[in-house]
Each structure stands twice: as structure tokens, then as C-alpha cells.
Amino acid sequence: MTATTTSARSELSELGRSETALRTFLHGLPGVDQVGAEQRAAQLSTRSIKTTAKAQAIDLAIRMVDLTTLEGADTPGKVRALAAKALRPDPADPSCPHVGAVCVYPAMVPHVAEVLRGSAVHLASVATAFPSGQAPLEIKLADTRAAVAAGADEIDMVINRGAFLAGRYKEVYDEIVATKEASGDAHLKVILETGELATYDNVRRASWLAMLAGGDFIKTSTGKVPIAATMPVSLVMLEAVRDFREATGRQVGVKPAGGIKTTKDAIKYLVMVNETVGPDWLDPDWFRFGASSLLNDLLMQRTKLTTGTYSGPDYFTLD
Amino acid sequence: MFEYAPAPESRSVVDLKPSYGLFIDGTFVDPTDGGSFKSINPASEEVLAEVAEAGAQDVERAVRAARKAYDKVWGPMPGRDRAKYLYRIARLIQERSRELAVLESLDNGKPIRESRDVDLPLVAAHFFYYAGWADKLEHAGFGANPRPIGVAAQVIPWNFPLLMLAWKIAPALAAGNTVVLKPAETTPLTALLFAEICQQADLPAGVVNILTGAGDTGRTLVEHAGVDKVAFTGSTDVGRAIARSVAGTSKKLTLELGGKAANIVFDDAPIDQAVEGIVNGIFFNQGHVCCAGSRLLVQENVADRVLESLKRRMAQLRVGDPLDKNTDVGAINSAAQLERIRELSDAGSAEGAERWSPPCDLPDRGFWFAPTIFTGVTQAHRIAREEIFGPVLSVLTFRTPAEAVEKANNTPYGLSAGIWTDKGSRILWMADRLRAGVVWANTFNKFDPTSPFGGYKESGYGREGGRHGLEGYLNV
Questions:
Q1: B152 strand-pairing partners
Q2: In angstroms, how far is CA B334 from the centroid of its own chain?
Q3: Residues 6+ apart with CB under 8 A from A307
Q4: Looking at beta carbons, which residues of chain B come within 8 Å of A50?
Q5: Deepest of A104, B54, B230, B260, by most Cβ within 10 A of its Cβ?
Q6: Where residue A1 falls among pLDDT bands split at 50, 70, 90?
Q7: CATH number for position B351
Q8: Is residue A311 part of a domain?
Q9: Claim to verify: residue B273 and residue B253 sit in the same structural domain
Q10: Is there a domain that residue A245 lies in?
């Protein structure tokens, strides 16, 4: 890290001490032009990724999947099956890589941990009164600690959107700092719930707020509101992690979640990562897809590329 | 690393003939004196087809055919019937858009992404738009019963061959004129495919005539006494010569000429989108755009930051095979144009501006020029004053809005300008003061058939597009 980024980093770390300083900084970030951002995202979607590049992208995308189930109806049996799939997505092909992580509710963490123990697949747990985050801070932190104690090595927290939209940035900041502390060694993904933040300016501010407060990843959505991950929102977040690393030297990951269902979609995101932040982020440590049905489409396209023919959906496991 | 594998668009969708005649009076005919020239692919220098060169007698035949069609068929035809033909042409263009896009990229060198996503959709949109006007001319604001002018001689450039054809032919035909059009000598092929579309649409013979050839053909055409209207898009020098030649005649003239547009970035601009706009402004179509944002005026207090972002973005531009779907910047259209770009760029270096290009491998064959920016440019540099018409951006700085306006207007041209700021009131203040026919705010190179386009000063006169575009083809 250079001297300038060291000093910039210490200056930026002071921001969280005062509401005014945070507000001044966040509102001083360059604005986002909605039309321009959407146009750029659409342009990146026109890249044509074929043959060898497609094969490479599919395997990378599989390794980046956070295989997710977040239902009231989740049971130990259901999440164990999902964890088994995470380890061996395509039982017919041992060369198929495993996914990045399994993502479940805190109560399901022990059951997943049993299956994943000893593997390289991470165990992510949502926490902090997911998905609304509308609970007292103490309860959110207890939720986080319980998930880590049960074996989660990644925590997906939600920010306090109510406080953010009301302009109480320090409250949002402090909650992230507290959750980071409660997470211990676990990686902290900060869910911005961009569908509720509504504007790209807000998305950029919330991204910076989460990074300043110590988040290891910024994540678009819970998947529980009508608008989940979109290309332009993810573009704005990628620009934020790029600029943040430039300013501080610290790299932060990005996780679009919700609504990414096809191989085509996943490849568009990888192209966007490649051309916005570059190869440093083309790695499961720095980019993830929060998804469930995406995996089977990736497997289907992978089989098509290796065998030359499409197999029916019955050839891929439903867990 | 994530390397994109080659993704070439198929050439086989285009059925190129070895040679093409002139399209006169509804049929392809050989030129009277048998002259011809070759059209090449600027990305590989391979010969695509041999094309007839029209001489004086061919011009005579074409103008006579257009006159006859005007007097007997097209002029008297009710607007609603003319509209049917224009709608039919528009639909055929859409149906054959892939073929037209591939041919445009082959003959011009522009990336297929642009010919497919920009040129062809706009071409069809122009025909659809003016088809709608054909039976509504009395509501266009030019009086109760506006009449067409007669035979239009139209000469178009090589940078957007089919789009410029559409800008010329669609309003002319909608208003009831007939046309003789000369495409540029380096890019005649899509105009000839358009002639086939006219046949396919059963357009009456003589309404559209296409004469291929070089400068001499164009001169003979615009100077022909049987022509009532001249429309030209191209360089300011040729435009001047045309203006001189039609002076003292009753011919109506519209000119769309060069430009040296300022793209003005204020310190409160949305930086990431402004950088996209700068890239789109100068590297779109290899900078072969008369309204290209070839002068970047950036507020001094954000200049470093903007330039750093711009360079990072330029390093992502993919230069190469125009038919590869992932290519961003294609080939320079001709050896002569490449020479001009080189000459002016060398002058930029010689006059002390600092030159930068991202690392990029250029193909061995064909005409190529890496995306280039010059920093430390002042108003006195040639690269700040002369139109380069290539992928070369001159970067200047300013301190205040008034200085930005002064520098932006300090050019003999006045075709377009761009403003990047988050402040709406400043956009309006600037737009009032910029002497440019088109002012884009927080975007650049946006085109739409409903919007008039044209210049101030040496960028020409008359407007194309929109309701205003009808005026040049009506006797008003």
C-alpha cells in the first residue's frame, strides 16, 4: 500500500465518528446518471461469449454460486440435501467444480455444517433479523453470534434501511461495525437491499457506508422484495469497490443475489466484472452469485458444451 | 484472465455479386462508358466487388428517369400511397437487417455491434418515421398544401453509408420528391443492396436512382440543370464547392458538414457515466462521426481524475475484426483517411501535446489506428481546431462555465456539443450559449428520427430529421 492510500485510509476510518462527517462524505461522492448507468449495463450485456470462453465462464460461475435456501419451510433434510449438492453439483461428472458456499438461516447452520465439514465449500448464514432487519440491535447481534457459533464462516447481514432512508447514516454504520465485531473471524457480507434504496445514488452511498464500516462483501438483495439484483445496480456497486480499493488499498467483494436464473445472465455479470473491475475480482473469494435455480442451468449448459447435446431437466438433481 | 473467444458474425448471410451496375429507372444497367472501380474491405484490403462508375451520360439518364417518375407517378400520388411504399421499405430493411449490417461492416470497417445495434435500427426507424408524415404534410407547419420540390440530387459520405442514405431518401420520398443518390466511393455496397430492396418493394421505377462513382460523378450530378434540390453530407471543403456551384440557380440546398464538437465535463458530473460518454463521443464508429466529441473540455479541478478513469476505460476497448461481435473499435475506412489521421496526430505530437494510447495489437493488414488521446492541448494546436475524423481526442481544461462556453464556441464549426453536470440549471444556461445545432446533456451521440439534426456556421445549414427535416424537401 502506498503512503497516500495509508493516509487516505486513516482519514476515511475517522468518518464513522460523526454523523456530519459521514453525510458530507457520502453526499460528496460523484452522482450516478441513471440513463447512462443503465445504458452501460445494457451495452455490456451484448458481449458474445462462446466456446472456450463460455466453458471457462460456466465453471467459474459454478464456483461462485452461494447455493441458497431461505424458506420458512426449510428442514434439516432439505438443507442437508442442498449441502450435498454444493459439494458435488453434477454427480455424473467428477470434473465439475463445487460451489462457493451454501447459504441458509441460522437455525439450519448446524445441519449444513455436518455435511460440509472438511470441505472447501463455505457456510454462509443470513443474520441480523433477516430479511427486514427490523429488530433491536441486541437481538440482531445475538442472531449473528449464534450463527457463527453453530459453524457459519460467512455472515450475510442486512443494513438498517429505515435508518439509511431517514438519513441516520451513523446508526447504519455503527450497526455494521457491531455486526462485524460479533462475526469474529467470519466474513461479513453486507446486504444493501437495493430494491428498497431505489436510486443509484443511494446504492453508491450505501456501498461506501458498508465498506467504510468494515464489510468484506457488499451484496445487493435479500431476494425477499420484488426488485432483486439488476445489472445496473451491480455495476454501480462494482464501481464502488473499485474506487474504494483505489482510495484505501482494501479489496471488497460483490454479491448480486436474487433473480439471476440463467447461464446467460451469469455470463453477463462476469463480463461486467471483467470490464469494470478486472480479473482481480474474477474469483469466488471476491465475487459470488446468490442463487438457487441458477446452478442447474449452469450444469445443463456445461453438459451441453462437453457432450454437444442438451440433456433434459430430469438429468439434473432437484434438491 | 477471462479471454473472450472469437465470436465472428457469419459473412455468408450476404450474397455479394462480383460486380454491380448503376440503378437507373428501376433496373441495374451498365454505365455508358463502361468505367468501374473496386470497393474493398478496409479491415483486410480484400476486394469485395467491382462497382460501376457513372459518367455524365449516366447522370443524364438518371435525372431524366427521376423527372419522369416525379411528373407521372410519384408527384401526383396521394401521400397515403407513398406512405405504403415507405412502410414496406422500412419493413424490408428490418427483415434484411442482419444482411445489411454485415455488408455495412464489411464495406465500411465499423464493428458489427454498431451496424447491428445502432445503424440498422436507426435506418428502419427513419423510414417508419417519415412514412408517417407522407399523408400528414399539411399538418407539418408549412401551410395548407405544401408541394414537393421535384428531383433531388443527394451525395452522402462513407461514415454511415446506409444511415445517411435513409436520412436523405426517407424525407425526400415522403414529401413527394424523386431522388438520384450518389453513395461514397469507398462504401457503395449497402446503397446497391438498398436498390434491390426498392425493387423488392415494387417502388415505381425512377423514384430512387443510385449512381455509384467518385467526386466527378457527384459534381456532375449536383451541377445538372435538371436537379431542383441538392442535399450533401460530407466535408466542409466539398460543401463550399457545392454551394458555389448552385449559387445563382433556383436549386434548393442543404449541407451537413464537418464538426469539432466540445464535450464539456464539469466537476459535479457523474464521472463514470461521463467517461462512457467521452468514449462513445470519440471512439464510436472510429471517430468517423461529424458530430464526434473530439474536444474534451474538462474542468481543471477534476481533470486528473477524469483522465485516469478515461485511460482505464480505454484500456478495455477491443480493437480488431469488425465482424467479431465483441469488437468495439473497427478499421479506419480508407488508406487516405488513415493518412490524414496520422498526419494530424503527428502534428499534435510535434506541437507539444502529450500523446497516449492503451496497449493494443493492431492487425497487420487493413487500415488501423489505435484509440488515442492528447493531453496538454491548447486552443492554438491544430488538433484542437481541425477535424481529424478519427479515434483521436484532444483534451483541454477550463476553470469556469463562461470559459467553457468561450472555448467550446471558439471554432469555425458548430454541429454539436455535450454537457456533463448534475445541475439542471447549468445545462440550460450552457445550451443557450453554445453555438451548436445539437446539444446533448449527460449523454452523447444520441440520434432519433424525430429530432432535427444540423449545424451552425461552417457545419452547414438546413436540418435533417423530425418535422424540420421535411422543410428541405418542400416548396416552402
A1: B179, B229
A2: 16
A3: none
A4: 5-7
A5: B54
A6: very low
A7: 3.40.309.10
A8: no
A9: no
A10: yes
CA distance A313 to A310: 9
- Catalytic site residue from B256, B387, B458, B464: B256
Q: Which residues of A touch B272 (CB under 8 A)?
A: 30, 32, 36-37, 40, 239
Structure confidence by residue, pLDDT tens digits, B307-355: 999 999 999 999 999 999 999 999 999 999 999 999 999 999 999 999 9
- Determine how β-strand A154-158 pairs with β-strand A187-191: parallel
B243 and B277 share a domain?
no
Residues B273, B165: one domain?
Answer: no
Residues B365 and B407 in one domain: yes
Amino acid at B427: I
CA atoms within 13 A on the CB side of B44: 10
Runs of H (alpha helix) within chain A:
3-14, 19-27, 34-44, 51-63, 76-87, 109-116, 137-149, 161-165, 169-183, 194-197, 200-212, 231-248, 263-276, 294-307
Q: Are residues B217 and B315 in the same domain?
A: no
Query: A31 and B1 in contact by Cβ < 8 A?
Result: no
Q: Could you tell me which residues come within 8 angstroms of residue B31 by beta carbon, excluding any fewer than 6 positions away?
A: B21, B22, B52, B53, B54, B55, B58
Determine the Cα–Cα distance for residues B232 and B237; give it in Å rounded to an integer.
Answer: 12
Q: Which domain holds residue A189?
A: 3-306
Global ipTM: 0.94
In a domain, B352, yes or no: yes
In a domain, B214, yes or no: yes
In a domain, B426, yes or no: yes
Q: Is B256 a catalytic residue?
A: yes
pLDDT above 90: residue B113: yes
Q: Does B315 touch chain A (CB under 8 A)?
A: no
Residue A318 lies in a domain: no
First to last CA, chain B: 62
Tell me if A79 sits within 8 A of A98, measured CB to CB: no
The pLDDT of residue B341: 98
Q: Note down the domain range covering B123.
A: 11-257+457-471
Please write the tens of the pLDDT for every residue from A64-78.
999 999 999 999 999
φ and ψ at B372, to 5 degrees? -135, 140
Cβ of A35 within 8 Å of Cβ of B325? The answer is no
Find, among B331, B261, B339, B274, the residue nearest to B303 by Cα: B274
CB proximity A201 to B under 8 Å: no
- The answer to whether position A314 is within a domain reads no
Instruction: Measure B221 CA to nearest chain A CA, in Å.
Output: 41
Question: Cα(B384)–Cα(B377) distance, rounded to whole angstroms?
Answer: 7
Q: For B85-112, how does the pLDDT look when each residue is reduced to its tens digit (9 = 90+)?
A: 999 999 999 999 999 999 999 999 999 9
Structure letter (DSSP) for residue B284 = G
Q: Is A54 annotated in the active site? A: no
Confidence of residue B215 (pLDDT cuts 50, 70, 90): very high
**Which cell is B73 given?**
407517378
B399 in a structural domain: yes
Which helix (H) or strand (E) segment is B195 a member of? helix B189-200
Chains A, B: CB contacts within 8 A come to 69
